[in-house]
């Protein structure tokens, strides 16, 4: 009895080979130690269009700095630098 | 300890009244053994949401170092003042102080907002 040669697996579409770029904490990378609540434009990077905070899995922040960003955003909201709820922020 | 006080005054104040209101709180800090390190009147700014049916406010940011019992006195005065829409006192850590210093002196001021 002849042994069948091992068949290579064939795909209909090309397999994605490029790897997604690894996320990094921009604060650690840039050496930023303090998150300023007065800088509303900067904090907007961590908000979606409705003015909600983006989760860590999207921003890539480390836990330490996500906490600081969250505190800064909440302060900015209190002082009416950022809205609590909105549509079409940015 | 180093602190930072941000106050929003009503927009109905005239220029002189605004200056007087700033001076009032700066003097209050000085009289109670504090030291104002920096005063930054932002002036008229639009609010992100209306406060007391006003859509704009006069912002002032004061940086000062003071004994910890001063803040309570300051808060009482801020709450009493009719012209104050909102106020916030933030305790600054050492990184915050250096950040503020750098921003003020313009050295590497952009380091925070520029990236990539």
Automatic annotation (TrEMBL), chain A:
The keyword RNA-binding applies. GO terms for cellular component: cytosolic small ribosomal subunit. Keywords: Ribonucleoprotein, Ribosomal protein, RNA-binding, rRNA-binding. GO terms for molecular function: small ribosomal subunit rRNA binding; structural constituent of ribosome. PANTHER family: 30S RIBOSOMAL PROTEIN S18, SMALL RIBOSOMAL SUBUNIT PROTEIN BS18M. HAMAP family: Ribosomal_bS18. NCBIfam families: S18. Part of the 30S ribosomal subunit. Forms a tight heterodimer with protein bS6. This is Small ribosomal subunit protein bS18. It comes from Chitinophaga silvatica. The lineage of its organism: Bacteria, Pseudomonadati, Bacteroidota, Chitinophagia, Chitinophagales.
